[in-house]
Specification:
With 443 residues, the protein is α+β, with helices and mostly antiparallel strands. Helices cover 55% and strands 7% of the residues. A 5-stranded mixed beta sheet has the order 1-2-3-5-4, covered by helices on one side. The two termini are 62 Å apart. This is histidine kinase.
């Protein structure tokens, strides 16, 4: 079982930390994954025979030892592609043994304590180390390299009896070259890590930005729906309070029932106002005004037309929607906000274009259609790039009332927004066409 507790005294293995730096083995392209192996294979194939030949011929090292040192110094480069630190431990030991053999040889005028092949192979290994290991590990490798070079350089023969001198001191050369390679490789690795972190942060920021936009739009919709419900709760409370005074012949039991209804409505209204304080921001106090509906579309169209965008409005028979008991207040508000946002997008992104707004209804659905064509003449846009927040808000409004939204560009360069909303919200049942007038005793 994955959730089982390990028995006492048993050590739990923790997963290894991810290896920093670039990992060609995870590259999407195959040739990129194979390229490091091809490079180190070329170095290994050339360094092994060269090292054995140079140690045997130029330094007088035993042929068997020369061949073993060639494999030990250059062979681990194949391991360095994936495990450079383990390869370095093998190589540094082999290089030190080879340097001791070189210092004990009778060769005069030859580079020591490191042979040229050792320097080439070690620098290739330093590249792998700097690209895969941490800064602390790289610094430790360079300090060990420096210490070994200084100790072995101190064991060089300073001169000969005939006035000749030993060959070039490659210890100092390896210290300098390895330091430069390790430093440059570390800089390249850290730069790559920084770029990867930036890409990850940008992706996270974009996700958070979209999520924040959705939450803000939901909060705004919740505030507006609260205003609609709060209005009806207030009406219920006022009607229940005034009913005993408006109606004659109200008994005490009925009067108490009205008082109970009014008290419950006031309590619910108080709870909703406390919720409103949480939903509203401090700068949103102006939203306490009554929320608009389809009866305000004429004012919205006139204001948009004055803003430079001609709008044609098509509505059903006057009063057939706004006074109908079938049209939910939430749907009425959502339809208005969809038209408002669609016209705002036309003003921002297609100034000068002609917009057509059509609202139609059948027995069960309300259809809102906003279509705009391309601008009649080139006009400087108010915004050249959109955030998509408007479409997110429209989609969220439609989803909350159980409708559908279809929005997208047109072939001629215009844009179309079509919303199909139910006459009542999903939680609000339809009213029957004819009330049941039968008595309880009727069959």
């Amino acid at each position: 079982m994955s959730g089982a507790t390990p028995p006492p005294g048993r050590k739990v293995r923790t997963p290894p930390e991810p290896v920093p730096g670039p990992q060609p083995g995870r590259a999407p392209r195959r040739w990129v994954r194979r390229l490091p192996y091809v490079i180190v294979l070329g170095f290994t194939a050339s360094l092994i025979p060269t090292t054995a030949q140079v140690l045997g011929n130029d330094y007088g090292v035993n042929d068997g030892l020369a061949g073993a040192l060639g494999f030990a110094q250059a062979g681990p480069l194949l391991l360095a592609v994936r495990r450079p630190l383990q390869a370095w431990w093998i190589v540094i030991v082999a290089d030190v043994v080879g340097a001791v053999a070189v210092l004990q040889s009778d060769a005069v005028g030859r580079p020591s304590p490191w042979t040229p092949m050792v320097i080439v192979g070690y620098l290739v290994l330093c590249v792998a180390l700097s690209l895969r290991e941490t800064r602390r590990t790289v610094l430790g490798v360079w300090l060990v390299t420096t210490a070994a070079s200084l100790v072995l350089s101190a064991g060089r023969d300073p001169g000969t009896s005939d006035g000749g001198t030993d060959g070039p001191n490659t210890g100092i050369l390896l210290i300098i070259l390895s330091g430069v390679v390790l430093l440059l490789g570390s800089l390249v690795r850290e730069r790559g890590e920084t770029r990867r972190r930036l890409v990850e942060q940008e992706a996270i920021s974009e996700t958070e930005r979209a999520r924040r936009t959705l939450l803000e739009e939901r909060a705004r919709i919740a505030r507006e729906l609260h205003d609609v419900v709060a209005h009806h709760m207030t009406v219920i409370a006022v009607q229940a309070d005034s009913a005993p005074y408006r109606l004659s012949g109200v008994s005490d039991d009925v009067r108490g029932e009205f008082e109970s209804i009014a008290a419950g409505a006031r309590d619910s209204l108080g709870e909703m106002r406390r919720l409103l304080q949480v939903l509203r921001s401090e700068d949103a106090q102006q939203e306490r005004a009554p929320q608009p509906g389809l009866d305000k579309l004429h004012q919205l169209v006139e204001a948009t037309t004055r803003g430079g965008v001609p709008v044609e409005l098509s509505l059903p028979e006057p009063g057939s929607l706004t006074t109908s008991t079938k049209l939910s207040p939430a749907v009425d508000l959502s339809a208005y906000r969809i038209v408002q946002e669609a016209l705002s997008n036309v003003v921002r992104h297609a100034p000068g274009a002609t917009a057509h707004v059509s609202v139609s209804a059948d027995e069960r659905h309300l259809t809102v259609l906003v279509v705009n064509g391309p601008a009649a003449k080139p006009v400087s846009r108010l915004e050249w790039s959109g955030t998509g927040h408007g479409l997110v808000g429209m989609g969220e409004r439609v989803r909350l009332v159980g409708g559908t939204l279809d929005a997208g560009p047109l072939p001629d360069g215009g844009f179309r927004v079509a919303a199909r909303l139910p006459m009542t919200t999903p939680d609000e049942p339809d009213e029957p066409d004819e009330p049941d007038k039968r008595s309880p005793s009727s069959p």
